[in-house]
Design a protein that fits this description.
alpha+beta; 4 helices; flat
Length: 90
């Protein structure tokens, strides 16, 4: 269900106009439907294939550099701002 637009508290998604509050519930329902309709072995293989390049890049990363970068983001307040802006007070 691709997200198309949000206007005045409503969203157009997957060819349907939904109240903005209903979009997440509908997205979850569609995801469950898709997950249950795909054969488990095909889903697992596709997921492994899609994740492969990212997993290889992570394995080849300089972990000291990654750790240093994330520590800088905590120290400069970026991580706290990001969390506040994305998940807020949840």
């Amino acid at each position: 269900m691709p997200f198309v637009a949000a206007v005045g508290g409503h969203a157009i998604a997957g060819g349907a106009v939904l109240a903005a509050a209903a979009v997440l519930d509908r997205a979850v329902a569609v995801a469950v439907e898709l997950a249950e309709s795909a054969p488990a072995d095909a889903f697992a293989l596709t997921k492994r294939q899609l994740r492969h390049d990212g997993v290889v890049r992570i394995a080849d990363s300089d972990l000291d550099e990654v750790l240093a970068m994330w520590c800088r983001r905590v120290e400069d307040g970026w991580t706290a701002r990001y969390l506040q802006n994305t998940v807020g007070g949840r």
